[in-house]
Amino acid sequence: MEKDEWDTFSEDIKYRFRYNGHIIGSTFIELDINGKIFVFSGDIGRIKDPLLYPPEKPRWADFLFLESTYGDKLHPSDEFEKKVIALVNKTIYNRGTLIIPSFAVERLQTLMYLLWKLYQKNKIPNIPIFVDSPMGNNVLSVFEQFPDWHQLSKKEYYGMNSHIHIITSYRETWETIDNPQPKIVIAGSGMVTGGRVLTYLKQLIDEYTTTILLAGYQAEGTRGRKLLEGAQEIKIYGKYYPVNAEVHHIESLSAHADQEELLDWTNNIRNIPEKVFLIHGESDALNTLKSKIENEYNWYTFIPELNEIYNITV
Q: Does 313 score more than 90 pLDDT?
């Protein structure tokens, strides 16, 4: 079915999907049961995203299920350009490798676009850029197939792709590692939990000329979080590797709405929800957003426990 169009599930239930701008194809869900509207936010995107349109907003919610990934934070602005320019110049000077672990869907394509735009504006030199992510390559084709879901023009899409080398085989992965040129490598996964980035880190994380740029949220217990917290060594495939590489972090590229954007997303709701359930967040984010919603809107807000059951009468 098409987004924004109501579809009938049964005599008393209908539903529809609406654009929420988190990743290409993502939506939030509105469920109408006997005239009561249940809104499931899913992951809400940014108001100003390089690739996607702003999220649509619900107009009515009797019961709201709201994500809270960044319920306690505001994303910094204009951080990416300044930091990346400095890191690229340093990588060239050191004849090293800038490794950017990336989520395959949306983040990888955003990084490609922003790096290409920096080159176009003569803000970074023509340093070789390699993208190594089979899933990310597949998502690139989705951007080509569904132009109505994103802001990239055909000219921009093909220009970006022609500027960046897309790795399509494991042989090319090793050729890239052995390439002595200064270079940028974007590879999955975003939290360094698996994927092609581990192959690069095994070979290059002990080099002082290597720089790692973590370009998104790093969950507790992941290698990315350990690197962010200054780990001296990292375990990869059963073996420990010393971390001599410089590690940097940037949060401005997050595809998740921050606290201000979450509140903006809810401000179009015309009624007072009977209940608001906060989900998909760590404890601090959940509790901070709960207090914020109660203070701003005076809405009845819950943080459900794992496996907790609520009975709702409609």
A: no
